[in-house]
Structure to design on (280 residues):
């Protein structure tokens, strides 16, 4: 029989931030979701993508704790039938390991309304207790409301999937928010999140691009109280992101990620201009 440690059961596949850019925005990415990491934040955002992309994220010891080690790999492939994505995320250590495999699809309607879906395979392994596997669905929608405003919604584990003989429920989260973009190179994101087990969390972030080469960002959040800052360096096909985050409970942590977008600098610029151009 498969059992779960009580202290771990409440944290199964929790909705932690993935990606240094997203962490630098304090996780406020639901209504933006304009790269392959949209798989984790809002698969509808994949429908915005015009170029093939993959991203690698690794945080070996968040807050100095190797037990919280997290790594993720994402991939997005635009086609004439929509954008297909795939992702793998692993969390934990030798005694406790969560693996999440995701297949995604995103598409759009008239370049203003977007929708997406994730099919998740969850695998949980606890040493000396065995392994268990489950499946679940995520959904996302996004809409361009004006040349300076877009909205997004993400439902994680809408199927209410459970795992193991003990049928412990996998985390179920709902997020919604807006991105305000008065200039092509400046964005402000605000959103709310409701994990069905916890109080409502509010978060926000800003991102500013300088000469297509440098991104500066910062974010704040509540429940728990957090703040973050980050920087991105764009060079040819590559983007190198770094983030620093502080939690009132755990202190400071820093992390990085690498993204390869086959549109290069021009592709990144096109992504920033896409909202405005949809109404021109």
């Amino acid at each position: 029989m498969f059992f779960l440690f009580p202290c771990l059961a409440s944290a199964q596949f929790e909705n932690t931030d993935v990606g240094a850019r997203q962490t630098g925005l304090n996780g406020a990415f639901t209504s933006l979701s304009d790269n392959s990491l949209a798989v984790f934040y809002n698969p509808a955002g994949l429908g915005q993508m015009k170029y093939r992309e993959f991203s690698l994220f690794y945080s070996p010891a968040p807050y100095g704790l190797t037990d919280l080690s997290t790594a993720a790999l994402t991939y997005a492939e635009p086609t004439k039938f929509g954008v297909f994505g795939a992702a793998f995320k692993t969390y934990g250590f030798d005694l406790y390991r969560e693996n999440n495999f995701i297949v995604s699809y995103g598409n759009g309607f008239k370049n203003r309304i977007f929708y997406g879906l994730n099919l998740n395979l969850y695998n949980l392994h606890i040493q000396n207790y065995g392994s268990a596997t489950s499946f679940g669905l995520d959904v996302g929608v996004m809409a361009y409301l004006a040349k300076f405003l877009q909205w997004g919604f993400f439902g994680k584990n809408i199927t209410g999937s459970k795992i193991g003989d003990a049928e412990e429920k996998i985390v179920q989260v709902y997020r919604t928010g807006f991105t305000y973009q008065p200039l092509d190179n400046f964005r402000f994101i605000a959103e709310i999140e409701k994990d069905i087990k916890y109080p409502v969390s509010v978060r926000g972030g800003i991102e500013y691009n300088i000469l297509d080469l440098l991104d500066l960002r910062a974010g704040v959040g509540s429940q728990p109280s957090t703040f973050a800052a980050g920087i991105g360096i764009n060079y040819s096909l590559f983007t190198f992101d770094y983030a620093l985050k502080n939690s009132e409970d755990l202190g400071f942590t820093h992390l990085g990620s690498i993204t390869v977008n086959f549109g290069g600098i021009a592709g990144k610029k096109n992504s920033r201009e896409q909202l405005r151009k949809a109404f021109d």
Notes: The helical segments are 6-9, 20-24, 38-41, 264-277. The first strand starts at residue 53 and ends at 59. The chain has four helices and 16 strands.
